[in-house]
Design brief:
The complex is a heterodimer of chains A (86) and B (570). Chain A is mostly helical and 86 residues long. Chain A has one domain. Chain A contains three helices and two strands; from the N terminus they run ααββα. The chains are: A mainly alpha (86), B mainly alpha (570).
Chain lengths: 86, 570
Amino acid sequence: MIDKKKNAKAYWKENLRLLLLLLSIWFLVSYGAGILFRETLDNIQIGGFKLGFWFAQQGSIYIFVILIFVYVKKMNKLDKKYNFDE
Amino acid sequence: MSVQLWTYILVGITFAIYIGIAIWSKASSTKDFYVAGGGVSPLANGMATAADWMSAASFISMAGIISFAGYDGSVYLMGWTGGYVLLALLLAPYLRKFGKFTVPDFIGDRYYSKTARIVAVICALIVSFTYVAGQMRGVGVVFSRFLEVDINTGVIIGMIIVLFYAVLGGMKGITYTQVAQYCVLIFAFMVPAIFISIQMTGNPIPQLGMGSTLNDGSGMYLLDKLNGLSTELGFSEYTSGTKSKTDVFAITLALMVGTAGLPHVIVRFFTVKRVRDARKSAGIALLLIAILYTAAPAVAVFARTNMLETVSNQPYASMPEWFKNWETTGLLQFDDKNGDEKIQYVANAQLNELKVDRDIMVLANPEIAKLPNWVIALVAAGGLAAALSTAAGLLLVISASVSHDLIKKIIFPKISEKGELWVARGAATCAVIIAGYFGINPPGFVAAVVALAFGLAAASFFPAIVLGIFYKKMNKEGAIGGMVVGISLMLFYMLKFKFGIFDGGKEAIAELSSEWWFGISPEGFGTVAMVVNFVVAIIILQFTPPPPNEVQEIVEDIRIPNGAGEAIDH
């Protein structure tokens, strides 16, 4: 029981660290690149896209999808590591 | 074959499929009815979530709104997808582990209080009803344009179909119908998008076509051309937008947090078997949603460019067939102010002669691009799939709130399972009838409120659920206080600045915009109300007793994925 409690604590800590990292990226690509720094990024053009506009209408969405799949993978690993997988 | 015949055939086939699935997946227990028996695979749940989520607004309205708003339309693109990241990381796995039937179940148990449960039920009903009325209206619009029946007849046909599979099949019927509906709607959205992308840029992938050069040999980028056309007519540059940065930020955040707080989306994650399935199906759902959401801005650019080129400064007499068709619906209006028999479509309201309803862009797009008739009919079937799938998901939340949270958990706990199932079916039927009534007699404010449903969800559920999982010490007084203050503040702001009820009605709204708090529009105010909810909850917590130990243990238990009572071998 003591072991399980300890495990649960360590598991939760690692989980929170992962969340913090992924949510920072989530914030940077949408609110950062797509909104706050859009004008600056718009000076860079890739193909027909201004970069800030691209992040707001395309790029952030692709990265959101990747973020969730990274989360799924990392959490499955974490579940195994702490013996919490089903 | 004519468009109308094609539409009858395609809509007929898809409706037959939905009804067939409903009969095959009839619900026989309350567990079937509320959470589809709890054994849905992550892929099926991902598809169902995507269909559930993408409503008439995503399918019919969104690309149209973006094509008029340009960069400002990004709030919907980021807002309605980014919410899934929050959902997958902060809510879905833990709520699945908690393992009950509804969102008020979680709030009621976690905050050990009937009051909390009732507050959650009321919030769920407010959010879901405002949302579902808009869907029924969407069904009516599609029917009236493509099958040339009266809008009201269209709403009633839609009601009967939804009634049939939601009442009979419950969550089980809805889940598998939504899987079929996802296939129909994504196919219907992508086929015209691909056709038009090839036509305009030669690139078959619309997401790339949007950033490619034009097909006309000029070597000019499509977006540059559209920026040029827009400024020529006095509009702002397509890729720049006009909203303030604060407002764009606030609206995006309110939509994201609102998405994560919508009960009909959350409840989908109760239907999978394991916690890891809940995480995975959130990823699959967003991937499937992203296909449409990254194509929509491309469709918006194609449609806008096509439309400006077709109508601007052209003689009215030479307008194609679709122009006249939409004129008869009243969604397109031409008024030859200067009498030169040509169409002047410009930003200046005094000189502008053409009024275009934003909702027609997606539906008219295949006609504007002169695509074959079956593609046009396909879009109609897709619009119906989008509206019906969302309506069904919402109706289930409404019926579960009544039969499970109110009747079973509060008013009449001794009810038998069979009795509860009948109450659930009865509640779903009543909900369909009320939704249909609002679809036929929209009370003017429905469309406006649909956008605000997100603000309401953001202001009420999101903080209560997140605190419930991530803050073990959060107690009932704090959570209830936060929800009540949050949703009341949001309702107040909505009534003041969206409906002007304190300042002389709708006419006053335009002038009130200079008084917006922090320059944030009612659509973005959910962000402020959400922050207030968090702050109020944490302040109240300081002056009230902490939650009992059992509750803190529940919280520790939902944080780990595997069964609580199971022994762990070392």
